[in-house]
Amino acid sequence: GAVVSQHPSWVICKSGTSVKIECRSLDFQATTMFWYRQFPKQSLMLMATSNEGSKATYEQGVEKDKFLINHASLTLSTLTVTSAHPEDSSFYICSARAYGSDTEAFFGQGTRLTVV
Amino acid sequence: GQNIDQPTEMTATEGAIVQINCTYQTSGFNGLFWYQQHAGEAPTFLSYNVLDGLEEKGRFSSFLSRSKGYSYLLLKELQMKDSASYLCAVMDSNYQLIWGAGTKLIIKP
User: Fold this and answer.
1) Most exposed residue of A34, A104, B70, B78, measured as fewest CB within 10 angstroms of its CB?
2) Chain A residues touching residue B48 (CB < 8 angstroms)
């Protein structure tokens, strides 16, 4: 089946620094990638939708200057958390929609971000 | 507004059967998904229903009634490893997933 690789699996960073998370579709072309954030014991919250070659669409309440998303190719999207603060500590998950598909079924492994 | 409702928590016994319900109200409908999520891990795809009826896949089955805005996930022959959260998600008219809060399933020996 389709595989989405997300890296790193976990990261600890100091407050004020930036962290980049990569999301790669390994065996298919992903025209659209989705970035989610999940706080403990809560459901996934969509942060932004990323289309290859265009600017990401952010959900209401998500700061686009803080969460930079780049979808430079059909197999790679990155999320950069800039000037991270402890409240940004969360589980970040990407998912990818295959080219020609209307369904979304492929998730990366997730990244546990802890800001200290 | 858009809304997905599912029970917060359920408990079942190993070897038994459990049904997790999901009701929804969304702007349009392009399918309903069930995902399994173990603590600290990303969700894993279980099923996709877009037409009414029952889809069976091994020990797991998923049912959909579009007229009632209702789905359920049926887990048979429960195993301890089935202890997880089960997320119901509906794809709306914009092909965006609307997520339920998840049902935490606890399996007891």
Assistant:
1) B70
2) 103, 105
